[in-house]
Amino acid sequence: MIMVEYALLFIVLAPFVGGLVAGIDRKLTARMQGRVGPPLLQPFYDVGKLFQKEQIVVTPSQHFYILSYLVFIVASGALFFAGGDLLLVIFAFTLAHIFLVLGAYSSYSPYSFIGAERELIQIIAYEPMIILAAVGMYMVTKSFFVWEIMASSLPLILYLPGVFLGFLMVLTIKLRKSPFDLSTSHHAHQEIVKGVTTEFSGPMLARVEIAHWYENVFLLGFIYLFFAWNPVYGIIAIIVAYLLEILIDNTFSRGTWKFTLKSAWIIAGMMGLVNLGVLYYLSGVVPV
Amino acid sequence: MTHLSKSPWILHYDASSCNGCDIEVLACLTPLYDVERFGIINTGNPKHADMLVITGGINEQNRAVVKNLFDQMPDPKVVVAVGICACTGGVFRECYNIAGGVDCIIPVDVYVPGCAARPESIIDGIVRALSVLEEKKAKLVKPERAGSGGER
What we know:
The complex is a heterodimer of chains A (288) and B (152). Chain A has one domain. Chain A starts with a helix and ends in a 7-residue tail after the last helix. Chain A is an all-alpha fold and 288 residues long. Helices cover 72% and strands 0% of the residues of chain A. Chain B has one domain (3-145): 3-Layer(aba) Sandwich (Rossmann fold). Chain B is built from four helices and seven strands. Chain B has helices at 20-27, 63-72, 84-88, 119-140, and strands spanning 9-16, 41-42, 51-56, 58-59, 78-82, 98-100, 110-112. A five-stranded parallel β-sheet of chain B has the order 2-1-3-5-7, with helices on both faces. In chain B, helix 1 (20-27) links the parallel strand 1 and strand 2 (41-42). Chain A binds chain B through residues 26, 30, 33-39, 42, 45-46, 48-49, 51-57, 188, 190, 193-194, 197-203, 205, and chain B through 2-4, 6-7, 29, 31, 34, 36-39, 41-45, 47-48, 50, 72, 74-76, 137, 140, 148-152.
């Protein structure tokens, strides 16, 4: 059953949750580096400031691409929280990032171009694993609908441990954490200036940031699906996974695109595929 | 006070400094001084920056670069000249290749003297620049377009 009220809740609350998570992230990162760190609400101050800045339009099509990026991220997240079809959610999610890449390609800036290329490589890297996660959930619950997966009493994590670990690896790519923060980063890696966001300024950059908050909340919701049979474990899993991501972010430097692709395809993809193979092989033995 | 002064993002440019002031600017980012406490981030991208922090005097080769960086920054923006060379040209003032302080190319809002400027005085200069940023924002907002950023 599709629940529109959850979709509306997501649209209204996700920016606040996402911004707060980003604030906690920055504070914890600072503490891990022995610094005091910014106030908890710093991400909101940043976005508030960006909306007050002048908007330098490098090319008018940027507006369309960035707005589409935000709209499709919100749409995919809303569809997910409404309990919609997981495959449709993933397709809308990918489309959103294609718009971001097009936005970066629309301006003639070498840094923006390299950022766009790297963003494409990231999409290539994480996409198979996210599809594998959806397929794994289908194999266990016999449904691609999020609300049916949520209603399932089967402990998905026990059936899909490999898929979950693989998903955590590509989550590092999606959250733009080191070592996979190739296209752009929250930190001061200045090798390609700001990569995919180099040519966006003021309110346009604020929209990219808000879209990223929506995206993070959606991805944390995806973790919850693996633990949907027990909400307490679900919340704990989200917290532990995010803390782990912050720790990884602070202990690794930025890797190369080859390292990213190998990690996402060979290691994460293999864990997912082997998991699905075993699940298929045992389908007559374990209650699925 | 608006959000502007709570999250100033800095673009640091070394015009022709001896590197002394640059090291002091970077020292502000270390755990001891930690300017991220005030929401200050070193961006490295003029299109994201609110504040241009320049060290060293302007020489003939980077006149155009400094002007270009300044032009690429979205309004409201401020310029902080860090170190005596950035303020006036310092001991290099008479050199054949030095044009002078930063203010001979672009308008400077805050001067931070010193050789090298100490991290404390750099942070003080940046905090003083925040009020200039607020003033500029107040002038920038036209009555009919209040609340939204301008466009160009």
